[in-house]
Design goal:
The protein has 339 residues and is an all-alpha fold. The chain contains 12 helices and no strands. Helix 3 runs antiparallel to helix 4 (80-110), helix 3 (49-66) packs antiparallel against helix 6 (149-185) and helix 3 (49-66) runs parallel beside helix 7 (198-222). The chain is globular and about 60 Å long. It comes from Macaca fascicularis.
Length: 339
């Protein structure tokens, strides 16, 4: 039985699910009640799909997918099913995001409105581009079996950092998008934004829900007591029984195991090469060549990276045809170009 020293985790999950559902439902209600509903014909009603799908994809589904490894059930047994769930939820989030982009670009092109000129659009397209790169790199390195353990250990902190960064960018894009939509909509025949009509109050409240959801996701991601334990290491909030098959679980004791940070020379962890423990990324690369593993590593890494890059370019070209807009491809190519 997997247990936690505190019930705060499950309370946080309940609160997170409630906030995520409210974010989506509030956005749907806003678009339905104040903006006239939904359609798929290039009109303003087609645009209304954009905020709903982007909130659902880039915030709610993305945030939920990021927390798969925080579930205590994922601490025991094989990791592959949880990897597949993590990748599948992110893929679903990405599909919703792409459909949301199709909606807004189709509406803009139908109404002869410029694309990608506002800060909101820059933040959003940057988040989507990083999301695509993050998913492809995660699939290639962490899901496919070709990558070595030291490479995964090297890239894991980077993968985690960009996961949190993409969520932060998505929240910033949603907030700026809500503000932009209110400025465009509340004018002429409506009460101005600064008089806080009911639509403005409701939309601002939706934005606050999105912020609260994002902050809770980031809190759960950063809480060390809720991370999947590494072999031989438990924090002061984790039970030894979650390490089934480890030395702590084998003892069968009732005491709570508290292990201080382990030094590189400790036998509690599988010993990593000394060059990996102390070197930077570039030092690691250089020393792997001297150790004779560099060429073999490169021969496996380069074809995967090259294939992934070709796939990404093909996907972007296909997306530009679907959206009938070359601005998307140009903007993403600009982001991808070296400085």
């Amino acid at each position: 039985m997997i247990r936690m020293a505190s019930g705060w985790f499950y309370l946080s999950c309940l609160l997170l699910g409630s906030l995520g559902s409210m974010c989506i439902l509030f956005t749907i209600y806003w678009m339905q009640y104040w903006r006239g509903g939904f359609a798929w014909n290039g009109s303003i009603y087609m645009f209304n799909w954009h905020p709903v799908l982007m909130v659902a994809g880039m915030v709610v589904f993305y945030g939920g997918a990021s927390l798969v490894y925080r579930l205590p059930q994922s601490w025991v047994g094989p990791k592959l099913p949880w990897k597949l769930l993590h990748a599948a939820l992110h893929l679903m989030a990405f599909i919703l995001t792409v459909v949301g982009l199709v909606a807004v670009f189709t509406f803009h092109n139908h109404g002869k409105i410029a694309n990608l000129y506002s800060l909101h659009s820059w933040l959003g397209i940057t988040a989507v581009f990083l999301f695509a790169c993050q998913w492809c790199l995660g699939f290639a390195v962490f899901l496919l079996p070709w990558a070595s353990m030291w490479l995964r250990s090297l890239l894991k902190p980077i993968h985690v950092f960009f996961g949190a960064a993409i969520l932060s960018l998505s929240i910033a894009s949603v907030i700026s998008g809500i503000n932009e939509k209110l400025f465009f909509s509340l004018k002429n025949t409506t009460r101005p934004y600064n008089s806080l009509p009911s639509e403005a109050v409701f939309a601002n409240s939706t934005g606050m829900l999105v912020v609260a959801f994002g902050l809770l996701v980031l809190y759960i991601l950063l809480a060390s007591s809720w991370k999947r334990p590494e072999p031989g290491i438990l924090t002061d909030k984790q039970s030894p029984c979650c390490m089934m098959g480890s030395e702590a679980a084998g003892r069968g004791s009732q005491e709570l195991l508290v292990v201080q940070p382990v030094s590189p020379r400790s036998s509690a962890l599988p010993r990593a090469p000394s060059w990996f423990q102390q070197a930077t990324f570039f030092e690691c690369w250089a020393q792997t060549s001297r150790l004779g593993t560099g060429p073999a590593f490169s021969s496996r890494l380069l074809p995967v990276c090259f294939s992934w890059w070709l796939w990404l370019l093909f996907s972007l070209a296909s997306a530009s045809q679907v959206l009938h807009s070359h601005e998307v491809l140009l903007a993403l190519a600009t982001l991808a170009a070296p400085v």
